[in-house]
Amino acid sequence: MLALPWCIQRALDRGVTAHSVQGTATWAIPTALFAVVFMIGGAGGLWWSGRAANGVAHALRAALVERVAAFDRPALARFGHGDLATRVTRDVDLVRQWVQSLTIWVRIVVTIVVVLPAFALLDWRLLVVGVATIPLVVLVNGYFPGRFGAANESLSAAFAARADAVDDLLSASAAVRGLGGETALVRRHDDRSAVLTDRTMTAARISASWAAVPPAVPRLAIAAGLAIGGTAALRGDLTIGGLVAFTSWMTTLALAVTVAVELLAARGQARVAAGRIAGVLATPVTDDDSADAEVPPPGAALRATALTARRAGRQVLGPVDLAVGPGELVVVTGPTGSGKTTLARLLCRVEDPACGSVSLGGVDLRRVSRLELAHRIGLVPQRPLILAGTVADNIRVGREVDLDELRAACVVAAIDDFVMSLPDGYDTELGERGATVSGGQGQRLALARGLVGRPDVLVLDDATAAVDAATEATILRRLREWSPRTALVVISHRPAVLAAADRVVRLAPAPAPAPARSVPAAEHVPAGSRGGAGTVGVRGGDG
């Protein structure tokens, strides 16, 4: 591109001014060749820089998803869902755009290095004009970055807050509509959108001034150069071609400065975005697999010893001792806030205890790899997550499972008949977050997901709460017939579940540890419970 003004200068001075057709044609050909080279080089540069930038973006998104997937509850509590979505999308895109622009800096530097000596060859006074513009541009650019960085930081926070409001509006509006709560959600969204608009306008005003003022300096230099160069041309010290070349080079220099200003603004945005991404990646998570991870023996018993959990400096569970052997059904019950869900998460090592340990076959779960744990201990949470996708996708969740095994798990969960009644069976799309299934159907799909792979231990956290009593009894019977060696830990207070238990563990949010005691199950569960079953009272807490 920088060679084009030089070719035009030669064509004007040796062809047009001299009234030479041959001279004009002679310099028109290299001008066309340089234009083609510039086109090919520009396309190739954009392709390679785009490929590199998208590779960086893909790596960042993969790292973010991997880190968020390893977050425990305290780590997740630091970020809203919308905030995390903004960091994975908008912030990564800002970094990608900055990476893609790095090659442009090479062109900017080459422009300055080539254009200034070219001015000197034309006329030393034109060199003075070109050199004088550089410190002025630097001075002007020194005023804006700090103001723009602060405004963009505030803008990013507003984007995250609005994204959280949108997430709540989409996911919770139906649940609170009967209470009139959708009005509050809409109002909160409007308030956060208003804040976002205000901060967007503030950042836009600074960005507009930053984009307009610095490029005006080289444009004024063009006017000064035309006055100086025009006077020199009238005196015969500068050719018409040289004056045109100066104007073209100065325009190129002005364009380079304009692009540099835009890149500096983008760098400010990318720096803020990179800081937000780094904030997620730097969030500490529980150390994963140790180098000498152990494998528990097959068909092993699950045992919790002196298990306690703390949140915000307050004990919410424990101490709890619990053992469940192969083929055994242990039910954990207790009032709200007694720590039942916390216990379920500790038994699967979704969280680590404050004190005590959980072992499988005598092997501490902290010594077992996460992948091995996922195969050996299954958890069906109280509020199952239904993903956008087909029924089969929701049950497989990435595992290689054939349709027969899927259907076998669904038969146990008493959901196969419902799935087969759908238009496309197991290939039916469920909609985002399971919008097309009821609460009970969602729980049974989640149960089928936990059954796939036949884990040694299956922990059900009130997983049949939305199911009618007859279906619940069917599920419990089929569970024990389907895998008689699977140890079952069921969090529930429903009579049918308590009646089916081999043992019942009762948690209570007592102010002090209650002594453990074993009594006949008939005193605690309805008639029909298994003979010899017992109830153990242990201390629990909020959670």
From TrEMBL:
It is found in: Cell membrane. It is a multi-pass membrane protein. Residues 512-522 have a biased composition (Low complexity). Residues 1-269 form the ABC transmembrane type-1 domain. Residues 302-534 form the ABC transporter domain. Pfam families: ABC_membrane, ABC_tran. It comes from the Bacteria. GO terms for molecular function: ABC-type transporter activity; ATP binding; ATP hydrolysis activity; ATPase-coupled lipid transmembrane transporter activity. SUPFAM superfamilies: ABC transporter transmembrane region, P-loop containing nucleoside triphosphate hydrolases. Residues 529-543 have a biased composition (Gly residues). Its main location: membrane. SMART domains: AAA (SM00382). PROSITE patterns: ABC_TM1F (PS50929), ABC_TRANSPORTER_2 (PS50893). InterPro entries: AAA+_ATPase, ABC1_TM_dom, ABC1_TM_sf, ABC_transporter-like_ATP-bd, P-loop_NTPase, Type_1_exporter. GO terms for cellular component: plasma membrane. Residues 512-543 are annotated as: Disordered. Keywords: ATP-binding, Membrane, Nucleotide-binding, Transmembrane, Transmembrane helix. The chain crosses the membrane at residues 27-48, 104-120, 126-144, 216-234, 240-266. This is ABC-type multidrug transport system, ATPase and permease component. It comes from Parafrankia irregularis.
